[in-house]
Target: Tyrosine-type recombinase/integrase
Amino acid sequence: RKYSTIRRYLVTIGVVHRLLSLPDPTNNALLRNSVTKLRLAKKGDAKQAAEFTASHLNILNEKLSSSSSAKDVRDLAIYYVMFECALKRRELKSLSRTQLELVDNKYLVVLNEHKYALSLEGTVAVAKWINMSQNDSQYVFRGIDRHGNIGKNQLDDSSIYRIVRHAGDLIGGDLSFSGQSTRVGAARELAKQGVRVKDIQSFGRWQSIAMPYQYLGNVESSESEMVKFKSIKNWD
Model:
């Protein structure tokens, strides 16, 4: 079994016993030592998405901001929006022009009750793409064919995957980004700024605090919160 799977089993056993007012059988020194040894033995068997950082975004801005290629312009705007708004893939796909508000020369991205102010660089990147892609499509980000023609349909998951992976190719250094990388990076950037985990949860629109805990590297807290949330929400 993977270490993460065993940890989930132990956390579940402990929570069930506590709910029944029974002694927690997982709370003993011998078991903790055994689990620690297992964690060290299996270190690296479960890898988290590579972190996409503000430094990565700056590098991409330097490489792409002066480009006139539709793909480069679109991709840079996507990198900014995904990182600065901690966007999920489905939120990126469905993002419409009505969700963009220009206030004091900066774009606000509206996601339900949340509003996210883009940086000046992010605003410039998005504005450049909006100006380049003017048509009657409701979607902000759309596909581009091999001839550079901008379509009307929203991006699909495979396109987003390629766009995010391409960021690693542009930056270099054997980086392998996934669709979660910008959310991991956004959570950690907020933590560096001293933002509380509860507020990071709100910023990233996570239903459970377990995910920001996991992204910040606090695995035990993540698993404990995940079990509590599952028991309340009755997840499958």
